[in-house]
Amino acid sequence: MACMHGESRVGAAMRIATWNVNSLKVRMPRVEEWLGYARPDILCLQETKLADAAFPALAFEALGYQTAHHGRGQWNGVAILSRVGIDEVVDGFCEGLEADTDTRLISATCGGVRVSSVYVPNGRAVGSDHYHYKLSWLERLRRHLDHTADPASPVAVCGDFNVAPEDRDVWDHRRFAGSTHVTQPERDAVEHLKAWGLVDALRLRHQEDRLFTYWDYRAGDFHTHRGMRIDLILVSKPLADKVEFVLIDRFARKGKLPSDHAPMLVDVAG
DNA sequence: ATGGTCGAGTATCGA
């Protein structure tokens, strides 16, 4: 068969997904349910809030997924699940600078695609140390790609960017004026990342506004559709040319114990 | 009214 571990799957269709689960411990039933009906080939998770030793690798293996996780517990934590092989796993950054202790990035090669699961720092308040850290983290991610990947080959950078790329990506841009997630430096940082050779997969297929991936738990924001599009799947040209279908699964934001983020998936033709 | 609710852990902090 042409889809054993690590083998190239050139010619095979592929479904790539991302989901900020806001605690995998709490969300595991929802993730298992979602894997059961969405059946992604690759799923990037963010905010597992688990240490590596607590990551439920065996449960995912039983569902047909190999996994790689990078987390220290309590905060952050990222993972990649794959049923098309998982090789060359790299935890965090490897661009030759100081070690990454934040567990916000993991990369692996899955079915011929270099995949990264990213959880960009929130930034908290504009101008704060956290805000500047967010900007430098995004720049560091760009350098990471410069050193570890090739935009002429299949690359997917998936996750929670904590940046709404344009005004149409928040429920009321006037209400966000001057706050994090929408400032020009944050948007410029995402643009600089994309300038490496990535495009925003959702915008290849959908141009309408009010397509959100995140809704605050408070104030009934989900039910009044006060959301933001801050979760992105960025793909290099070899994948972008073959994107056939993109979906934000709002259904998964409903029901019992939902994450505050919806999962998103991209189908790439074979 | 400028909040609200979650999840970490068990008093608050972070988002």
Task: Characterise the protein shown here.
- This protein is an alpha+beta fold and 270 residues long.
- It has a single domain, classed as Endonuclease/exonuclease/phosphatase (Deoxyribonuclease I, Chain A, 4-Layer Sandwich).
- It is 23% helix and 24% strand.
- It has helices spanning 24-38, 57-62, 129-148, 184-194, 201-205, 237-240, and strands spanning 14-20, 42-46, 66-70, 78-82, 87-91, 105-110, 113-119, 155-160, 199-200, 231-235, 243-248, 264-268.
- The chain has a 6-stranded mixed beta sheet.
- Helix 1 (24-38) links the parallel strand 1 (14-20) and strand 2 (42-46).
- The chain is globular.
Question: What would the keywords be for this entry?
Answer:
Deoxyribonuclease I, Chain A; disordered N terminus; DNA-binding; 6-stranded mixed β-sheet; 23% helix; 270 residues; alpha+beta
CATH class category: Alpha Beta
Overall helicity = 10-25%
Domain module tally: 1
Distance between the termini: 16 Å
- The CATH architecture term is 4-Layer Sandwich
Which consecutive residue ranges, at least 5 long each, have pLDDT under 50?
1-6
Q: How is the biggest beta sheet arranged? A: 6 strands, mixed
Number of strands: 12
Task: Please state the CA-atom Rg, rounded to the nearest Å.
Answer: 17 Å
Provide mean pLDDT, rounded: 94
Order of helices and strands: EHEHEEEEEHEHEHEHEE
The CATH topology is given as Deoxyribonuclease I, Chain A
Compute the number of helices: 6
Shape: globular
